[in-house]
């Protein structure tokens, strides 16, 4: 969930009233926001870097507000204020207009070289905008928030904003060899080639995260103006030449990306938010983008879409009984201008360009419910009559674990993920013999594979509890995972039961007795007759030679029991003899 | 032992005594050391309520060794006086007597004797009076006879100054009859034996009392893990509410079931390598229900079922990628898909509690794997009000009654609501679960009828367990670093009962 940080006083000034922290927290809760933290720049620095560093930092109160991940229109002070004021019916939702310029339209021409790396671009102009320090900061911060969220860290979309008065169109969006791109990037004093820049930014804490997007590509995306001035090398950096400042009057915005829909949304969000500060409020100057196929489009789209939803559908989904007129009012408060039409039961809802999150009637239903107030909805029980059933494997597991405890064994709960070493080397096995599934992106060795046996987890549990009085008697009934090409995903779980006995003597007879008890519980008689169980001398790398037996029940091998090999005991950092038992319980369903 | 002669005498004396007796007095009476009587008192006390003994401390005057001597032999001055014959005694000779030096000066100041310094062979001492009254000896004899109180304060302190008297503190017992007083005492039995039962001798035998303040011996049985005890209770709650358990025994899931089927777009951050464990082997799902896959693909990329869709290029390779499921909602999706294939539609209530996996940064409250609890109801015409009603019943069974709901965003539910409950200890509202109605873009491609709504909610098993058992570090609860003592000591899980204080002892 993105967190937006706004100055409290600025926020209240824009909202036109003051709130206590509690009142504002309540308002957020009702609207689906969360007042996460009340802090200041000074407090943040002091927390992160110590009191000394915080000296002199601003102690203006900051509200950190958690915003739902799909509400890009609430990612800046301007949007939050507009949303809350409309919600509180203090203002009517503004209407955003795309206007044609008095002179020639700004043109961005996309060449076909971009196709393989970053094929889409959109653009717009904010004409006669008036920045202040706070507005400018918010403008930059919004781009950063969009980059981190909908833009997926610039992979899907990257935003460039430029001082239009320093440039001259038409602009060309193309892709070139890195060595052929040379310019003075933002906040640098000399020119570098793209190759040099990629090296320089490897140590830049902010930019290094974006390099991978184009790093290994033969051509890098780049935007020029008609004089060959580089506006930006998306998605990495803008040129210094067209840098915007507090004094910039006309802003050229370009968004390039791999996802056309998201590029259009991002552009819409930026221009709807900041056209508030244009001389003609909420108007945006159009720009033309010519695609390699010669087709030309005008942006921003600023599309208003109409949906018609029946009032009774909304009532039925929420569980309320409101008149269509009231529902239209509720929706209007959520920035969805609505009116009752047709037979008087239909509501026509206008979805503005700021509400890209509304893609289905269910999104409209939710907004009606929020405006109605979730906590005003009457709770009721569904009349759904059903007979409950347990999942048979879990039912058996539940029954067995109680009797395992009654037999004197204590239940462990160990991780399903572990290292290769745990399930292979430490048990004297080769990893290829385990049929284990392997994780491709583990952050540490603890998460290399899913366990193929419960034994390592229990032995590690003993190792972590060596101070406890002996004997230690542990068990676990849980799932292991192995590859299985007969399953749709190529792997499956098995429900295993594992028990260990750890003491000054190996206690094979105790583990053997436990097996006899388990078989008694499962109503499996001893003996080789059909349906019975028997153990037969066997061997395994994890067991002491001559002290291992394979368990056969109902005609199939279900596991092994025995005295663990001293090498296994040592590898798990244990010192005492230990016997164990591990079986698959699924044949007993 | 209690059957010593002194104890028996004590009991006989006590029987005759009016009210009680003092141990020191008894010792004096019997002519035995006081400690012998104290021993008898203590052993009788151990028998239970035969006697009552109250410890008293009294101050008492005793003669010093010199005082004893004087009580017997007379004071030094008296002894000096008596040693002087009628014709007097040379002073030098007198000084050689044992009491000479002290006695001479005292006898002089008492004016019992005089010194004639003009005698021919040196100073000579003569009696002045015929008889003397040895007051010091008399007083000391009084103290010796236990009548120190007959002396005045001044007299006692004078004797004390002369180191003839000393004040001692005596701890004595005031012994009186107990509820089970008897003069006949016998050796106590420690335990009831089969012989006593068969012979009936238990009727006549006294038994050594138990010390009920001591700890008992804990039983030797095994113990269930606290988290799984809580799991059992949650299963019970769902079963009580008529919910059927979904199969969740498949940790490995395809991205399709884990994300795509839930209408979670392929660029969603949760599908990032940083958040999800993907598999290297087997890297891809072998089979997907292709008809359904096409409907899902169309809904993501072009919309449909009343949706605009996400308008991006949906890729099958992405959906095939295997992973460790990040939520049990993948199992719910499979269950709902199965439900959708059954015609006609039958309402269903499902639940599951099982492990899920996140490639997250680990800390005191986050592990790479945890248990998710999920409840699902599918029926015609379910509303947000129904969801809230079910949640109220569910949380009431957990002992949580104060609930409120906050609008939220989940990729696969709309409307969505976070569930908050008022935490009495923290004095604030805390999130206890997440819920919503599954999106039509998820349900309709499965083939569920259009007017069927599916309400669902989820929470983690670890969080309520940590609160319940007062555990701050999740590693103490889950995984091999578990504190077994905590497992041994953990109480029953009664979710609707008031939480008691944490009980874990020892095992620091």
UniProtKB/TrEMBL annotation, chain A:
<comment type="subunit">
    <text>Heterotetramer; dimer of two heterodimers formed by FARSA and FARSB.</text>
</comment>
<keyword id="KW-0460">Magnesium</keyword>
<keyword id="KW-0030">Aminoacyl-tRNA synthetase</keyword>
<dbReference type="GO" id="GO:0003723">
    <property type="term" value="F:RNA binding"/>
</dbReference>
<keyword id="KW-0436">Ligase</keyword>
<dbReference type="InterPro" id="IPR040659">
    <property type="entry name" value="PhetRS_B1"/>
</dbReference>
<dbReference type="InterPro" id="IPR020825">
    <property type="entry name" value="Phe-tRNA_synthase-like_B3/B4"/>
</dbReference>
<dbReference type="GO" id="GO:0009328">
    <property type="term" value="C:phenylalanine-tRNA ligase complex"/>
</dbReference>
<dbReference type="Pfam" id="PF03484">
    <property type="entry name" value="B5"/>
</dbReference>
<dbReference type="Pfam" id="PF18262">
    <property type="entry name" value="PhetRS_B1"/>
</dbReference>
<dbReference type="GO" id="GO:0000287">
    <property type="term" value="F:magnesium ion binding"/>
</dbReference>
<comment type="similarity">
    <text>Belongs to the phenylalanyl-tRNA synthetase beta subunit family. Type 2 subfamily.</text>
</comment>
<keyword id="KW-0547">Nucleotide-binding</keyword>
<feature type="domain" description="B5">
    <location>
        <begin position="302"/>
        <end position="379"/>
    </location>
</feature>
<dbReference type="InterPro" id="IPR004531">
    <property type="entry name" value="Phe-tRNA-synth_IIc_bsu_arc_euk"/>
</dbReference>
<keyword id="KW-0963">Cytoplasm</keyword>
<keyword id="KW-0648">Protein biosynthesis</keyword>
<dbReference type="GO" id="GO:0051290">
    <property type="term" value="P:protein heterotetramerization"/>
</dbReference>
<dbReference type="Pfam" id="PF17759">
    <property type="entry name" value="tRNA_synthFbeta"/>
</dbReference>
<keyword id="KW-0067">ATP-binding</keyword>
<dbReference type="InterPro" id="IPR009061">
    <property type="entry name" value="DNA-bd_dom_put_sf"/>
</dbReference>
<dbReference type="Pfam" id="PF03483">
    <property type="entry name" value="B3_4"/>
</dbReference>
TrEMBL record, chain B:
<dbReference type="Pfam" id="PF18552">
    <property type="entry name" value="PheRS_DBD1"/>
</dbReference>
<dbReference type="GO" id="GO:0046872">
    <property type="term" value="F:metal ion binding"/>
</dbReference>
<keyword id="KW-0963">Cytoplasm</keyword>
<dbReference type="InterPro" id="IPR002319">
    <property type="entry name" value="Phenylalanyl-tRNA_Synthase"/>
</dbReference>
<dbReference type="InterPro" id="IPR045864">
    <property type="entry name" value="aa-tRNA-synth_II/BPL/LPL"/>
</dbReference>
<dbReference type="GO" id="GO:0004826">
    <property type="term" value="F:phenylalanine-tRNA ligase activity"/>
</dbReference>
<keyword id="KW-0007">Acetylation</keyword>
<keyword id="KW-0597">Phosphoprotein</keyword>
<dbReference type="InterPro" id="IPR040725">
    <property type="entry name" value="PheRS_DBD3"/>
</dbReference>
<dbReference type="InterPro" id="IPR036390">
    <property type="entry name" value="WH_DNA-bd_sf"/>
</dbReference>
<dbReference type="InterPro" id="IPR006195">
    <property type="entry name" value="aa-tRNA-synth_II"/>
</dbReference>
<dbReference type="GO" id="GO:0009328">
    <property type="term" value="C:phenylalanine-tRNA ligase complex"/>
</dbReference>
<comment type="subunit">
    <text>Heterotetramer; dimer of two heterodimers formed by FARSA and FARSB.</text>
</comment>
<dbReference type="InterPro" id="IPR040724">
    <property type="entry name" value="PheRS_DBD1"/>
</dbReference>
<feature type="domain" description="Aminoacyl-transfer RNA synthetases class-II family profile">
    <location>
        <begin position="229"/>
        <end position="499"/>
    </location>
</feature>
<dbReference type="Pfam" id="PF18553">
    <property type="entry name" value="PheRS_DBD3"/>
</dbReference>
<keyword id="KW-0030">Aminoacyl-tRNA synthetase</keyword>
<dbReference type="GO" id="GO:0006432">
    <property type="term" value="P:phenylalanyl-tRNA aminoacylation"/>
</dbReference>
<comment type="similarity">
    <text>Belongs to the class-II aminoacyl-tRNA synthetase family. Phe-tRNA synthetase alpha subunit type 2 subfamily.</text>
</comment>
<dbReference type="GO" id="GO:0000049">
    <property type="term" value="F:tRNA binding"/>
</dbReference>
<dbReference type="GO" id="GO:0005829">
    <property type="term" value="C:cytosol"/>
</dbReference>
<keyword id="KW-0460">Magnesium</keyword>
């Amino acid at each position: 969930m993105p967190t937006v940080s706004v100055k409290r006083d600025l926020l209240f000034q824009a909202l036109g009233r003051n709130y206590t922290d509690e009142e504002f927290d309540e308002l957020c809760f009702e609207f689906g926001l969360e007042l996460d933290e009340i802090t200041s720049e000074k407090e943040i620095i002091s927390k992160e870097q110590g009191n000394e560093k915080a000296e002199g930092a601003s102690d203006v109160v900051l509200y950190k507000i958690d915003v739902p991940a799909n509400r890009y229109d609430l990612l800046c002070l301007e949007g939050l204020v507009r949303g809350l004021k409309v919600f509180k019916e203090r203002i009517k939702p503004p209407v955003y207009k795309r206007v044609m310029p008095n002179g020639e339209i700004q043109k961005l021409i996309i060449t076909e070289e971009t196709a393989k790396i970053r094929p889409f671009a959109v653009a717009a102009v904010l004409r006669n905008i008036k920045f202040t320090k706070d507005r400018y900061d918010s403008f930059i911060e919004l781009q950063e928030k969009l980059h981190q969220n909908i833009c997926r860290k610039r992979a899907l979309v990257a935003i460039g904003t430029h001082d239009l008065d320093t440039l001259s169109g038409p602009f060309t969006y193309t892709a070139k060899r890195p060595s052929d791109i040379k310019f003075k990037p933002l906040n640098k004093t000399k020119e570098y080639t793209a190759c040099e820049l990629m090296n320089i930014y490897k140590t830049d804490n902010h930019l290094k995260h974006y390099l991978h997007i184009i790093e290994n590509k033969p051509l890098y995306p780049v935007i020029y103006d008609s004089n060959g001035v580089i506006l930006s090398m998306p998605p990495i950096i803008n040129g210094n030449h067209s840098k915007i400042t507090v004094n910039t009057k006309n802003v050229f915005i370009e968004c390039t990306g791999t996802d056309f829909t998201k590029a259009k949304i991002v552009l819409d969000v930026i221009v709807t938010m900041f056209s508030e500060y244009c001389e003609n409020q909420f108007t945006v100057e159009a720009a033309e983008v010519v695609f390699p196929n010669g087709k030309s489009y005008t942006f921003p789209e600023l599309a208003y879409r109409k949906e018609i939803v029946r009032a009774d559908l909304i009532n039925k989904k929420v569980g309320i009984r409101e008149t269509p007129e009231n529902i239209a009012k509720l929706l209007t408060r959520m920035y969805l201008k609505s009116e009752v039409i047709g037979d008087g039961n239909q509501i026509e809802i206008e979805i503005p360009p700021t509400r890209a999150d509304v893609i289905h009637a269910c999104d409209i239903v939710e907004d009606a419910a929020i405006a109605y107030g979730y906590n005003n909805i009457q709770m009721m029980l569904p009349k759904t009559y059903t007979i409950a059933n347990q999942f048979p494997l879990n039912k058996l597991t539940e029954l067995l674990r109680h009797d395992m405890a009654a037999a004197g064994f204590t239940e462990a709960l160990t991780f399903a993920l572990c290292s290769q070493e745990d399930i292979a080397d430490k048990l004297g096995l080769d990893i290829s013999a385990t049929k284990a599934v392997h994780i491709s992106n583990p952050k540490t060795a603890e998460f290399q594979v899913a366990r193929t046996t419960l034994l390592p987890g229990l032995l590690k549990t003993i190792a972590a509890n060596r101070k406890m009085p002996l004997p230690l008697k542990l068990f676990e009934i849980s799932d292991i995972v192995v590859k299985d090409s007969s399953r749709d995903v190529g792997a499956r779980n098995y429900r295993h039961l594992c028990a260990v006995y750890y003491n000054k003597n190996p206690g094979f007879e105790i583990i053997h007795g436990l097996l006899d008890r388990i078989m008694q519980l499962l109503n499996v008689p001893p003996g080789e007759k059909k349906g019975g169980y028997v153990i037969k001398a066997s061997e395994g790398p994890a067991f002491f030679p001559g002290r291992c037996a394979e368990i056969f029940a109902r005609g199939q091998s279900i596991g092994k029991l025995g005295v663990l090999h001293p090498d296994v005991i040592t590898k798990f950092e244990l010192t005492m003899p230990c016997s164990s038992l591990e079986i698959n319980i699924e044949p007993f369903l | 032992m209690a059957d010593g002669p002194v104890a028996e005498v004590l009991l006989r004396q006590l029987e005759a005594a009016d009210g009680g007796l003092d141990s020191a007095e008894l010792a004096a009476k019997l002519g035995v050391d006081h400690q012998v009587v104290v021993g008898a008192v203590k052993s009788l006390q151990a028998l239970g309520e035969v006697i009552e003994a109250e410890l008293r401390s009294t101050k008492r005057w005793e003669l010093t060794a010199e005082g004893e001597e004087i009580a017997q032999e007379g004071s030094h001055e008296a002894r000096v006086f008596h040693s002087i014959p009628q014709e007097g005694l040379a002073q030098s000779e007198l000084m050689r007597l044992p009491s000479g030096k002290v006695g001479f000066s005292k006898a002089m100041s008492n004016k019992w004797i005089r010194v004639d310094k003009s005698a021919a062979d040196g100073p000579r001492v003569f009696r002045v009076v015929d008889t003397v009254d040895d007051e010091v000896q008399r007083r000391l004899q009084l103290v010796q006879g236990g009548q120190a109180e007959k002396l005045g304060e001044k007299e006692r302190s004078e004797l004390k100054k002369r180191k003839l008297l000393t004040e001692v503190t005596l701890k004595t017992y005031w012994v009186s009859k107990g509820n089970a007083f008897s003069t006949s005492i016998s050796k106590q039995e420690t335990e009831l034996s089969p012989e006593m039962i068969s012979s009936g001798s238990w009727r006549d035998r006294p038994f050594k009392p138990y010390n009920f303040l001591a700890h008992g011996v804990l039983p030797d049985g095994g113990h269930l893990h606290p988290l799984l005890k809580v799991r059992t209770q949650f299963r019970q709650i769902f079963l009580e509410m008529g919910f059927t358990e979904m199969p969740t025994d498949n940790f490995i899931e395809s991205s399709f079931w884990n994300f795509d089927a839930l209408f979670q777009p392929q660029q969603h951050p949760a599908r990032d390598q940083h958040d999800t464990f993907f598999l290297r082997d087997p890297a891809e799902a072998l089979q997907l229900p292709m008809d359904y896959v096409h409907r899902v693909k169309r809904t993501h990329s072009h919309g449909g079922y009343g949706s605009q869709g996400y308008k991006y290029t949906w890729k099958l390779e992405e959906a095939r990628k295997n992973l460790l499921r990040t939520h049990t909602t993948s199992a719910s999706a499979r269950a709902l898909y199965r439900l959708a294939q059954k015609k006609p539609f039958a309402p269903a209530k499902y639940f599951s509690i099982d492990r899920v996996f996140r490639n997250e940064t680990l800390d005191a409250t986050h592990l790479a794997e945890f248990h998710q609890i999920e409840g699902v109801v599918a029926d015609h015409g379910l509303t947000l009000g129904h969801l809230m009603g079910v949640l109220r019943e569910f949380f009431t069974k957990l002992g949580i009654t104060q609930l409120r709901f906050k609008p939220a965003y989940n990729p696969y539910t709309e409307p969505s609501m976070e569930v908050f409950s008022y935490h009495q200890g923290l004095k604030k509202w805390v999130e206890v679960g997440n819920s919503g109605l599954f999106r039509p873009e998820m349900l309709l491609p499965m083939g569920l009828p259009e007017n069927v709504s599916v309400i669902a909610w989820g929470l983690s098993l670890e969080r309520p367990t940590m609160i319940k058992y007062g555990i701050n570090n999740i590693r103490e609860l889950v995984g091999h670093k578990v504190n077994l003592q905590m497992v041994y000591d953990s109480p029953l899980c009664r979710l609707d009962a008031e939480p008691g204080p944490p009980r874990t002892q020892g095992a620091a």
